[in-house]
Design brief:
It comes from Mycena belliarum. This is PLC-like phosphodiesterase. Keywords: Signal. The protein has 11 helices and 9 strands. By secondary structure, it is of the alpha/beta class. Strands 1, 2, 3, 4, 5, 6, 7, 8 and 9 form a 9-stranded mixed sheet that branches. Helix 6 links the parallel strand 5 and strand 6. Helix 7 packs parallel to helix 8. The radius of gyration is 19 Å and the shape is globular.
C-alpha cells in the first residue's frame, strides 16, 4: 500500500467512525478540506463529468455537487431547478412530437431522464468565469454515472463528497418532495462504495432532519445564507424547518444560526463567505460552532483575502470555484493538502465514461 493510500484511508476511517447522531466533533482529516464547488466551475463547466475530472486532477479534497430528481425519479447532478438558457441548449425532442419540447425553461422535476439527456449543457462558457473550459455536447449526468466515473479514476475510493439536495421550500411545486429526494439519494449513497465519505448538505433543513431520521449515521451539513435566515412576516424562515432563530442562544445572528444547526444534529455548518456585507461567516459563528462540536466549511470562497480571514478564524474547510488556486494557497500556509490524481488516468476515464452521452 502506498503512503498516499494509507494516509487517505486513515482519514476516511476517522470520518466513518464518528457518530453524527451523538454530536461528537469530527476528527480533523490529515488534509485541509479544499472542496471543488460544482466540481470547480471556475475551471470547467459546472456539475459535469469534465468538471469533476479537473477537480480530481487539481487535487480537491472533496467534490461538491448538487442533485435534482427527474419526473421519473432519477437523481441527476445539476444545480438549477430549471433548465436555463444561459447554461443549456435544446438539441431535439426525446421522441417524435414530444409536447413538452423544448425543454429549456422547464423544471427538472417535470422532465424525464430521457428528456434531460437530450440537452447540451457544456457549450456555453459563463460570463463570470472567463477561464471556464467548455465541453460541447456535454449531457447532465445521473448521480450513479458520476459515482461510476470517479470510481474509475479513484479505484481506492479515497475522494470525499459533499452532495446537496436542491429543494426550494418556498416554491414546493418546482422540485420533487423532501421525501422523494431523501429516499432516492439515500438509496444511491447506501449502495455506493463511497457511502462512508459522503456529506449530505442542504439549505432546506427539512431534508437534513429527514435524512438523519432515515439514517443517523449520515454526516449532514447545514447550508445557510443571509436570505434563508429571514422571517416571513411573523413566521420563521421556511428554509430552517420551522425553527425560529430568536429561540436560540447567542448575541449575534451567526451564533444563533450555529446553535440552531446543532439543534438539528448537523455535523457541519456551511455558511456563505463571499465578498458582500450579507456574508454570513464570522469569527463568532466559527467559535460557537466549534464550541458545539461542529465543523465549519464556508462557501463559495474565490478571493484569497477572504480565505486568509477564514483560516485565521480556524475554519475546517473551504468550498471554492477554484480548488487549484485555494489548494496552492493552503499549501503555502503550511497546511497539508490532498494528493492530486494522475491526469492521464483521469482523462482516460473521462473518455471511457463519455460525458456527452
Amino acid at each position: 500500500m502506498t503512503t498516499r493510500m494509507a494516509l487517505l484511508l486513515l482519514a476516511s476511517s476517522l470520518l466513518a467512525s464518528v457518530s453524527a447522531a451523538s454530536q461528537e466533533p469530527l476528527a480533523r482529516p490529515f488534509a485541509f478540506d479544499v472542496q471543488g464547488h460544482r466540481g470547480g466551475r471556475g475551471n470547467a463547466i459546472e456539475n459535469t463529468l469534465p468538471a469533476f475530472a479537473w477537480g480530481l486532477i487539481d487535487g480537491a479534497t472533496t467534490l461538491e455537487l448538487d442533485n435534482g430528481v427527474t419526473k421519473d425519479g432519477v437523481v441527476v447532478v445539476w444545480h438549477d431547478e430549471e433548465i436555463v438558457a444561459a447554461k443549456c441548449q435544446d438539441t431535439g425532442p426525446a421522441f417524435l412530437a414530444d409536447p413538452t419540447f423544448p425543454y429549456v425553461g422547464k423544471f427538472i422535476a417535470n422532465l424525464t431522464l430521457a428528456q434531460v439527456k437530450t440537452l447540451d449543457c457544456g457549450s456555453q462558457r459563463q460570463d463570470n468565469f472567463p477561464f471556464q473550459l467548455t465541453y460541447p455536447a456535454t449531457r447532465i449526468s445521473t448521480m450513479q454515472e458520476v459515482f461510476d466515473f470517479v470510481e474509475c479514476a479513484d479505484p481506492d475510493h479515497l475522494i470525499r463528497w459533499n452532495i446537496e439536495s436542491k429543494i426550494d421550500p418556498a416554491f414546493p411545486d418546482r422540485t420533487r418532495s423532501v421525501e422523494t429526494f431523501v429516499n432516492s439519494q439515500h438509496a444511491l449513497f447506501a449502495a455506493s462504495p463511497y457511502r462512508h465519505s459522503i456529506t449530505y448538505q442542504s439549505f432546506d433543513w427539512r431534508s437534513l432532519i429527514a435524512m438523519k431520521d432515515l439514517d443517523p449515521s449520515v454526516v449532514t451539513s447545514a447550508l445557510v445564507e443571509y436570505d434563508t435566515t429571514l422571517m416571513v412576516g411573523d413566521a420563521p424562515s421556511p428554509w430552517l424547518a420551522g425553527l425560529n432563530l430568536q429561540n436560540f442562544s447567542g448575541s449575534s445572528l451567526g451564533e444563533r444560526v450555529a446553535s440552531a444547526a446543532h439543534h438539528i444534529n448537523a455535523t457541519i455548518l456551511s455558511s456563505s463567505a463571499y465578498d458582500s456585507p450579507r456574508s454570513m461567516t464570522t469569527r463568532d459563528m466559527v467559535d460557537r460552532a466549534h464550541q458545539l462540536g461542529m465543523l465549519v466549511k464556508p462557501w463559495t470562497v474565490n478571493r484569497l483575502e477572504i480565505a486568509e480571514d477564514l483560516i485565521r478564524w480556524g475554519v475546517d474547510g473551504i468550498i471554492t470555484d477554484y480548488p487549484n488556486v485555494i489548494r496552492r494557497w493552503v499549501q503555502q500556509q503550511g497546511l497539508q493538502v490532498a494528493p492530486k490524481y494522475p491526469k492521464r488516468r483521469v482523462l482516460s476515464c473521462l473518455e471511457r465514461h463519455s460525458y456527452n452521452r
